[in-house]
Specification:
By secondary structure, the chain is an alpha+beta fold. It contains 16 helices and 13 strands. The protein is globular, with a radius of gyration of 23 Å. The relative contact order is 0.16.
Length: about 425
């Protein structure tokens, strides 16, 4: 094993799993490493057009007020008294899962000698999720309307963010007919159809039937915190439905080319690939190294050959969508340089398939990946996020597992995984 990996060390990041009486899965990891205690609740839903806008809207409405704290101001003042406890919600898109995410981070009670801080925080956290402000059998109408307007602006703002717009459009074209093509915030048209009662009924349906994962990370007693969660988050549920991500293995003979014209000052070239490798596969480790060599940093082939040597791109990188088995190459170029850029990008792909990988490219990629996962191991939210990916894919994988398995990757492994990667779609945002 190389010195890079010897210096990492092995830390226990195993979450202990238990299912509560109402079917909520808890994942608890006790560690003295952090001075805070971090809580996450994930509510899983199938990514679908008919529910996307409602799923995206819910966390933001729930943040606005509960029966105990009917305004954001009252909740924030309460949290300030709890030594600056932080609480909030958001929505995630992981493969073809649409996930409502709620989090709370509070100072560890062991450092202040007051366990009531933990209890008070968890009760407020519960109230935000399970005891919202309700009027006339629906959410508070003003809150729903205000959050709808904010979400509408977020959806519309994508059009003006040409960098992310080109990426999203490439995924949409690439995954036509697949749930992954749906934008995580839904559509303006569907959003307009939602009112406070429709959203509240959908909320109750999610609480009753959607799978839930509750994470706790910090210097806590695992048995004690399980009992506290069982008590505070005891609510009636019904039969839990199945939520899964469909993996598509696909080899395209002739890539799809899509061009869109707008008033833009720079061309946006995005190339979408099928990796034909699942996150749960052993080949995923060589795939991470492949992606790093191709476009994962300043040492990468795309950065060095497309941006630096050819001076074609303002930026050039590749990234993986691990829960769906996709890879994306993105670069900003002059409009007339499109064909030249595609040719140089294709040469980089061919070079990796042929084994033209320098020691510098390989070693720099490994070091970069190791450093990123070492940083993740020092961040409670990142630890939980990575473990969530493992749960979604039916495996158990910690940052230490990933670092250890990266140590075994060889150039031959990278070449083998390169053979499975197939160009699916080219999207080019051109000028009018």
């Amino acid at each position: 094993m190389s010195k890079i990996f010897e210096e990492v060390g092995v830390l226990d990041q195993t979450f202990k799993q238990k299912t509560l009486k109402n079917g909520v899965n808890t994942y608890i990891h006790s560690t003295p490493k952090f001075k805070t205690t971090t809580f996450y609740l994930f509510i899983h839903q199938n990514l679908a057009r008919e529910t996307a806008s409602k799923t995206a809207l819910l966390p933001f409405v729930l943040k606005r007020g509960s029966k105990s704290f009917p305004t954001s101001r009252k909740l924030n003042l309460f949290l300030e008294d709890l030594y600056g406890t932080n609480m909030g919600g958001d929505v995630l898109k992981r493969g073809e899962r649409h996930i409502m995410q709620f989090f709370m981070e509070t100072v560890n009670h062991n450092y202040i000698g007051d366990k009531n801080i933990l209890i008070k925080g968890l009760k407020a956290f519960r109230d935000m999720i399970l005891d919202p402000l309700v009027e006339n059998e629906g959410f508070k109408a003003d809150y729903v309307n205000q959050e709808k307007e904010i979400l509408k602006r977020n959806i519309e703002s994508l059009y003006n963010d040409k960098f992310n717009y080109a990426i999203e459009r490439c995924f949409q074209e690439m995954c036509k007919g697949e749930a992954f093509s749906i934008y995580k915030y839904g559509t303006v048209e569907d959003l307009a159809l939602i009112d406070n009662k429709i959203l509240y009924n959908y909320y109750r349906e999610c609480l009753a039937h959607c799978p839930m994962d509750f994470f706790v990370l910090g210097d806590i007693d695992e048995e004690e915190i399980t009992e506290i969660i069982e008590d505070i988050f005891s609510f009636e549920r019904k039969e839990v439905k199945q939520v899964k991500t469909d993996f598509v293995s696909k080899f395209v003979q002739e890539p799809n080319y899509v061009e869109e014209k707008q008033d833009v000052s720079q061309g946006k070239l995005t190339m979408g690939f099928r990796t034909n490798t699942k996150y749960s596969d052993k080949d995923y480790y060589p795939l991470m190294v492949y992606n790093g060599i191709l476009g994962g940093g300043t040492h990468s082939k795309l950065f060095q050959n497309v941006r630096e040597k050819a001076s074609l791109a303002y930026y050039a990188f590749s990234r993986l969508e691990k829960n769906k088995g996709l890879m994306l190459i993105s670069c900003g170029i002059e409009f007339e340089d499109k064909e030249k850029a595609i040719d140089i990008i294709n040469k980089q792909l061919d070079d990796i398939r042929k084994g033209n990988i320098s020691d510098y490219e390989f070693d720099s990629t490994i070091k970069s990946l190791v450093n990123s996962f070492k940083e993740a191991a020092d961040n409670p939210s990142m630890i939980i996020s990575l473990y969530l990916d493992s749960i979604i894919n039916g495996i158990q994988r910690t940052t230490e597992d990933i670092i250890y398995n990266l140590s075994k990757v060889t150039k031959a492994d990278v070449i083998n995984v390169a053979e499975k990667i197939c160009l699916d779609t080219i999207f080019f945002l051109n000028k009018k």
